[in-house]
Structure formats: structure tokens, C-alpha cells
Structures
1.
Amino acid sequence: MRTSIRNAAVAATAVSLALLATACGGGESGDKGKDAGKGSAAPSASATSEAPAAKALSDAELEKLIVEKADLKGYQVQKAEAGDVVPASEVVTEKPGCAPIAHAMSFISPGSPVASAERQVLAEPKKDATADPEDALLGALGVEMSAVVLGSYDGQGAQEALASVKKAGADCAGGFTVSHKSEKNKVLKVVPESFTAGEEAASFTITSDLEGETLISKLVVLRQGNTLASFSTVSFGPGGVKAFPKAVIDAQVKKLG
């Protein structure tokens, strides 16, 4: 039984890392907007009439604003590797309207950002010198990992992108399939949640099927001015992610001001 749990956990890790970094994810730096806007919803009347026009920040400016290790106690923070960041056009959903959710689940800012920055944030596992190797492995797999992405937009782009995420969450509640190259992952359910952050936010609990294993993850996309911050959090421990990564989100909102 312990071996089957370990094997399932390792298998889930191998497959769902694609969910975190490529297959329900992937992204591209700088020119994401060329592809990421596909499947986006039109902005709401309030978004187009109330929010002032804005000029996007640059990649360099976002790099100064994205959360770092010094901002978070008990977490490791690292830049996304080049292999983790892929063009939005390589992440394809069977239902085009679900693309904003698939993109927001990892290293793609939804909509048409002018600039972006990405980080991987991992909660530091609690050390137990008495744990045997299998228990240590399962403990490490239970660590929460968040893909944090900042995207900056011109004009009403941030409002439009967040509106597209909200619409996708409603339209794709029954699930969808997302493909990255030869890999496919199945999102079974998207459930809207109430999580308040930034000037406005969309949040979801997402259930995925990864080679027969169920993965429960959390997704938050918030807007602060003309910047969107996306947080896709996964854990391979029993029950998956049980709560939104409030410490990570609060630290990022604080830096955005």
C-alpha cells in the first residue's frame, strides 16, 4: 500500500508538473500578448467606461515588483526556467473559451499583456529527522507550489483579461481538456470561490485528472491597476491544496502597492 501511494505520488508529480509549468500552463516572456488573447471575452461595460486608460509597465519594471524570497518567510522563490515558459499558442484547449483559465493556471498571463514576469514559489517543507525515506518523499510531495505571474497591460487590457478569466470560469465549470505538444491533461471541474484581493479578483478551486489521480488546485487572478497577478497553486499531498496561498498573495499585493 505504501509503495502504491509512493508510486502514485511520483507519477502525479511527473505529470502535473506539466500542469504547473507547461501543459495547463506555459507562457512566454515579453510578447505573450500575440497569442494569449485568443479566446478572451469582451470587457464588461463597467470595465470599459469606469477604468482610466493606462500604460503598461516594462519587463524590467515588473521584475522589480514580483515577489521574491526576501518578501516571504518560509518559502523558496526562484525564477521560472526557460523550459517552463512556452508560447501561449502551444497550450490548446478543446473549448477555446477555456483558454484564459488554462493560461492563468501557470506561466501565461491571460489576455494580451505587454510585459510579464514569472516566479516559482515553494513552501519550505517541515523537516523531520526521524521520518523514513518514503514518508520524507510524501512530505515533500505535499509541499505547496505556486506559479506566480505578473502581466502588465495597456489601456483596458487588464480589465478585459480578468473579465475573460471570470467568463471562462463560468463557461468551463464542467471541465475541459488542455494539450501541450503531445501531452494532454483533463480538468474535471472549475468551481468559483470568493477570495478578496487587489482591486478585483477571480478565484477558483480546480479539480484535474492526471493519469487517474485526482489533483485539487487553487487559482487566483487579481488586478491591481493595469497589472494582473496570477497564482496557480498545486500540492501532491492527500487532498491537494486546501486553502489559497494568502501569505504569497498578500506579499505580492503589497509589492504592487
2.
Amino acid sequence: MSTFIALLHSIVLTPDRRVIMQDLRALAEDLGYREPRTLVSTGNLVFEADEMRPHEVETHLEEGFEEKFGKHVDIIVRSDCTWMALCSTNPFKDGYGDQVIVRVMRLPVDPQKVEALKPLMTEGQRIAVVGGDLWIDFAGKPSQSKLLSALTTKRLGVGTMRNWNTVRGLTEMII
């Protein structure tokens, strides 16, 4: 048995309806996953499953989500080991937990696409690619940065963002 972390790119079904975490846990159980638990209300799911490759779990969850909720949502899945590796490689541990964000990628981010983001950066901001994931220290509120709106699936590929506080919270759930 393995522990997996699933990160939903969006839990917004319509402008006035979001997936609630109780329904997300129920979906995981319906799909045969064990001990599903969530962190905050933004689509972070931890669960136990038989030995599977993360990509197989992604496909299974995405298909189940679309069938249950009527909308496709990209879901990034990591095993507990790869999540622990991601957590240990934060290049900006000296940054503030709500200002350091990792864009967890399905496939490694293209370095040329990351280079194209640099003109949008302001003084104090830092960016790094580690293990194919994009780390950003916004050095301030991410919502006030031009860089945030450029971190799209269209521009960078399938991925989803979590701040350092959430990354640590998910790590505590699997230890």
C-alpha cells in the first residue's frame, strides 16, 4: 500500500459552485482509495491506495471527477516519497510561507518557458526550477504580482500551485 497526494487544479465547477472537501473525500472512497483526508478547502487530497504509478492515479481521479461533477479538472498526483523530495528541495526556505509558491507540474517545466517569465519579475522576486517543478518567491503578496497571472497551463503546461504553508501541511499529513 502507498500514500498519495492529489492536487486539484481547480475545484470551481461553476461561478457559484465549488467542490466541497467532503464530496472530494467521498469521490476518493467511491474510487476505492482508503483513508482519504483533505487539507484546507482548495483541493488537496491525501489517501492510501494499492501500488500504482502516479499517472494511473491521476487518470483514475480525473475520470472519476469528471463523471461525478461533470467537469474536467487537471489533477496532479505524487507519491509520498516524491512529495517528501519536493518538500525537501524548496530553494526559498528563507521566504515567507504564504509568499513562496511551487507550481507542481505533471511534466517537467520547459526551461525556456521559465526564462520567458523573468521580464515579469520585480525586485526581490526569485524563481527556480527544481525536479521539474517551478518555485517562486514572490517577496510579497502573490496576488499583487504580474508574474502570478502568467503562471497558466497554456503557458507552462499542466500543473497547479500551492504555497509553502500548504506544502508543509500536506507533508505533516503523510509523516
